Amino acid sequence: MVQVAEQPDTRTRIVASTCELYRRQGMAGTGLKQIAQAARAPFGSIYHFFPGGKGQLTEEVIRSWGLMYGDLVAQVFDSAPDLPTAIEWAFAGAAESLAVTDYVDGCPVATVALEVASTDETLRLATADVFTDWIDLGVKRFEYTGLPQAKLRELVIGFVTSLEGAFVLCRAMRSTEPLHAAGKVVLAAAHAALAEVAEED
Amino acid sequence: MVQVAEQPDTRTRIVASTCELYRRQGMAGTGLKQIAQAARAPFGSIYHFFPGGKGQLTEEVIRSWGLMYGDLVAQVFDSAPDLPTAIEWAFAGAAESLAVTDYVDGCPVATVALEVASTDETLRLATADVFTDWIDLGVKRFEYTGLPQAKLRELVIGFVTSLEGAFVLCRAMRSTEPLHAAGKVVLAAAHAALAEVAEED
DNA sequence: GTCTATAAACCGATAGAC
DNA sequence: GTCTATCGGTTTATAGAC
Known about the structure:
Largest interface: A-B, 54 and 55 residues
Low-confidence stretches of chain A: none
Number of helices of chain A: 9
Shape of chain A: elongated
Oligomer: homodimer
Number of strands of chain A: 0
């Protein structure tokens, strides 16, 4: 069978387009009509695949992004020889990706999280689940370092918060400096924690 | 002259109410009618005081918040005996304020920044100016530490990004843990930087 | 300056033909 | 599954009375 310029199915295109639009302009700033147009899908298809409307579509965007980005970071982590290198690579990669995409390539979860944290409990829980999963994933990945559990968790949370906060400043200032600076700060904290463990031996 | 329960003038109430609503639900999620109602002002007064409409009102909210929050942080910094204590107090204060307000009391600049970074150049510049001012203010305040300029700037940017990112996670997870963890990470980085300078003596 | 009414466009959501 | 038409409500913005 010959396949010419195959494109993902309608449902997949809707989710992908929604995600992309949310990254640039947030949820409230994105209309369903705009989503349908971007996904090259008829308007009715949105309600066909997501009978729960915008809320259901948004929740799927949040959770699927959580899995995708979690996998991406896990790959970076797994290919890095140690914790400090993993931190360096993650921030450097984020900075490059942001610059290449003209500073639109932020995190859709953070944008939506700020919008819904006080207005939509279902979606707030979805964003919280994503952040919790990312933290657990990071902690599990670096347990081998021998850092005390509490210290490791603190460091991983600091990693995620720094990354998310740096995205905000980078996109606003159209500069990668905040990501580089945030990376250095997290790196310094990691080195300090590792040195403390090494001393005990 | 006797003054009974004096309330701020209409214009001030409009800006304050807009700021509060933006903190909870962002700019796109907030309607001008809702703002008028919250400010107990007639709808027409918004366009009377802000002929430029929502854009002009939003820019004033962003810039005035930048000044207010900059002053607040400057007060915390000035009352702290040294850099590490200033960092601890700032994160602890933010965490307390967030918990007390039921996780509503985030940063309006960050929310709006993510919404407009790729859609409204005028407002993007306003958010960038605020972040730049905060960074410059922090650098100037701690020049006395003797840290090299680049290292100090890196640390201050890490401070701001960690604070903003932690706000996102705290509001999503309804927990102050991210702010506490982020504070610890920035603190560790500050200690490491200061120790490096001390060694040179 | 204060307030109301309304225009014109857009929103999310639904119904129903095909 | 695809697509269109439309409903009721909301949005920003304006016009004009008081």
